Amino acid sequence: MVEHEMERDGTMRVEELPGQDRMMSDSAGAGASLAARPTAGSAHPLLRRPRRLRRTPALRALVRETNVTMDDLILPVFVTHEPDTEHEIASMPGIRQWSVERSAAYVERAAAAGVRAVILFGIPESKDATGSDAYDPDGVVQRAIRAIRERCPEVVVIADTCLCEYTEHGHCGLLDARLEVDNDATLEILRRVVVAQAEAGADMVAPSGMIDGMVGAIRGALDQAGFPGVAILSYSTKYASAFYGPFRDAAQGAPSFGDRRSHQMDPANSREALRENALDVAEGADMLMVKPALAYLDVVRQTREQFPEVPLVAYNVSGEYAMVKAAAQQGWLDEQRIVMEILTGIKRAGADLIITYHAVDVGRWAHGG
Ligand code: PBG
Q1: In CA terms, which of 38, 60, 67, 361 is 20 to 30 Å from 119?
Q2: Sorting pLDDT into bands at 50, 70 and 90, what band is 36?
Q3: For residue 255, what pLDDT band results from cuts at 50, 70 and 90?
Q4: From the CB of residue 248, how many other CB atoms can be counted at a distance below 10 Å?
């Protein structure tokens, strides 16, 4: 292959040049310097040739604008209350629910593959009207935070802050008499949740419920409880998306009736995201998020431009992962190249960080495994 020959000796021989370049070599004589040769015989002299910088892998690396590294990736981890178990999630091949102890061992293996940050989701033993396991000091996520902290002190631990996995009805907050999410009553619960997560040792909390005022409420709660250093990654622009389907199997947090359209954003809107972002930054969000990623890269770009100074995260969600895995299992596409192309595209659109279920695989590929 031409490409490989170039990789070996770093030079490009005239005989290997296709099309236009070959025509030039015919008139100017084989072996003449490409740079010095005039474009004889052409009515349109080609002074500008973007292909010059694509000739070799080394040249391409020099001019590459976007690089995805393990520092950019955050691995989601599902932790179940069940002792001593690991359950593979059918719609997310390679991803499991881990018992508390095994979750720490899994994070240790992920860290060995290069993962530097995890975001935790819990599957509690019992669910109730207020989602009390989410703020119980011995709730499943609090136990997992402590276990991971102890075993992998160098890993950044982010706790997802929402109630949908913990409420008996699967909604992201308390319900009022009309069975709608009661915004302001939910804020009080979220304040308790973040304090429990911070006490367990979370570096960062990530409110994901799209409850109005959630960032300000939990910033106040963290500060009052003596945790001014715990950061907030707000799911600032979270769409009501069908791409969350596999996650709801994984986290067992599907609503038992209705849906989340009264609080998550309408996929048709992007200007509304500007408002959500501005509110969250004003309330004290340390980082912003767009979720899902792939169908919303315009929103990623727009958020990057609105707040160039605020780190931006994109969530490469469960449905996006499941589509790639399913096609790869059929042999319909090259998993490794597709994953790197997707992650590069998300970063190129403007994300600094990507939450992705592919993180461990990417780390292994980088180590040649
Ligand atoms: C809610 C939450 C969801 C996801 C992350 N946090 C589901 C939802 O809003 O219904 C979805 C993540 C994914 O699909 O990978 N706590």
Answers
A1: 67
A2: low
A3: confident
A4: 16
188 and 274 Cβ atoms separated by less than 8 Å = no
Q: Are residues 148 and 99 in the same domain?
A: yes
- State the residue range of the domain holding 17: 1-37
Q: Which residues line ligand 1 (CB under 6 A)?
A: 160, 162, 164, 208, 244, 247-248, 260, 317-318
Mean pLDDT to the nearest integer, 250-255: 84
Give catalytic status of residue 238 as yes or no: yes
| 127 among known catalytic residues | no
Average pLDDT, the chain: 90
Residue 84, token pair as written in the block: 């001593």
Q: Which of 244, 260, 325 to mutate to test the pocket of ligand 1 (most atoms within 8 A of CB)?
A: 244
For residue 354, report the distance from its CA to the centre of ligand 1, in Å.
15
Q: Is residue 51 a part of any domain in this protein?
A: no
Centre of ligand 1 from the C-alpha of residue 112, in Å:
26
Does residue 128 sit in the same domain as residue 10? no
* pTM greater than 0.85 (yes/no): yes
65 domain-assigned:
no
- The CA distance from 352 to 190, in Å, is 27
314 lies in some domain: yes
